[in-house]
Amino acid sequence: MNGEQRVSAQTPSPEKLNASARTLSAATPGDEQERLSAISSELRCLVCQNQSIADSTSGLAMDLRQQIQEQIQAGKSDTAITQYMAERYGDFVLYKPKFSVDNAALWAGPFILLMVGVWVVLRAIKRRGRFSPPLDPPPDQTRLKKIEERYKRDAK
Amino acid sequence: MMSWMRLGLPLLILIALAFLLARGLQYDPRNLPSAKIGKPAPALLLPLLGESQQTFDMLSMRGQVWVLNVFASWCAACVTEHPSLLQLASRKGVLLVGLAYKDNPADTQAWLKRYGNPYRAVALDTDGRMGIDYGVYGVPETYIIDRHGIIRYRHVGPIKNDFFDQQLVPLLTEISIEKQIP
User: Fold this and answer.
1) Interface predicted TM-score (ipTM) of this complex, two decimals
2) I need a surface site. Which of A45, A138, B163, B165 has the fewest CB within 10 A?
3) Is this model's pTM higher than 0.80 or not?
4) Spatial contact of B49 and B108, defined as CB atoms under 8 Å apart
5) Which residue of A lies nearest to B135 if distances are taken between CA atoms?
6) Which residues pair with B100 in a beta bridge?
7) Please, is A58 exposed, middle or buried when counting C-beta atoms within 10 Å of its C-beta (0-12, 13-18, 19+)?
8) Residues of B near A (CB-CB distance < 8 A)?
9) pLDDT exceeding 90 applies to what percent of chain B?
10) pLDDT tens for each residue of A91-137
11) Which candidate, B67, B129, B128, places its Cα nearest to that of B98?
C-alpha cells in the first residue's frame, strides 16, 4: 500500500496495476517502441512532476504509456496523440506547449531578457567610452613664441 | 540617467521579481487546473456497482447539477473526505455519482458498506481509462457538472468545508449559462 500521505490526492500502488501493463514492452515491435518512447518523453508525468511519462513508474504514467501505445497501433500521428493528452490534462503535460497568447511570455521571455541584458551592457560600454577626456589640439607655434618672448622681457 | 534612478531601478526590478517569486511559491504544484472546464463531461460508459446490466445514463442527468466524485477503496484521503460527501447527499440533497477508480468492485462494495454510500450510482472504472478522459491524475477528485452536461469545476484532494456554499450553490442557482461557457 502506498504510504505517501504528503500529497492530498493519491495514486494506486504498483500491485494494483493491470497485468496487461506489464506485458507492454514484450509485445511491441522496434519502431513502435521507439515512437512510444519519443512521445512519452515529451510528456510530463503529473504525479512525479519532475519526470517524463517515459521515465515515471507511477500508475498514471503506465496507464498513459499504454494509451499512447494503443494509439500508435491505431495509426494516430504524434501530434494527434500529444493533442489528446493536452485536451485532458492541459498544456502543463507538454514539455513543449504550442505557442499561443497564453504562453507567449514563457516562450519569448528568455529572448527578451537577453535583449535587455545586451542593451544594458552596450550602454555601459558607451558610457565608459565617454569618460576618457578629449585630446587637446596641438598648440599654435607662432602664438607660443610670442608668449615666450613677452615672458622673457617681463622677467628681466 | 540620474543617479537616483540608476540605484532605484535595479532595486525596483528586484522587488518585483521577489514579489513574483513569493506568489509562485504559494501555488501547490499538485493542484493542477482542469483542462476540461467548460467542456462536455465525457459519457461514463461503465458498468455500475450492483447492477450488472446497466451502464450509467448521463443523458438522464440533463437538467440537473450533479457531482462526480472519483474515489477508491485503497485511498486513505477518501476516508477523510467521505463524511462530507455523506452529509452533502443526505442533508443537502446533492446528486452524487461515484467513480470507483482503478479498484476491484468487491473492494469498492466492502468499502462503501463500511463507510457509507452517498452515491446515487457508482460507475466502475477498473482500469482507469474513463478517468483519463476526465483528466483524473489521483484520488480523490470531485467534478461538478451543470444542467447542460458541462464540467464547471474540478477539485483535487478531499473537498473542503465550503464546497457546497462556494462551488455548488452558484451553479445550482444559475439560470442561464450561455455567457459563461468559454
Assistant:
1) 0.81
2) A138
3) no
4) yes
5) A88
6) B71, B124
7) buried
8) 29-36, 72, 74-77, 102-103, 127-129, 132-135, 137-141, 156-158
9) 65
10) 999 998 888 887 888 888 899 999 999 998 998 888 877 666 667 77
11) B67
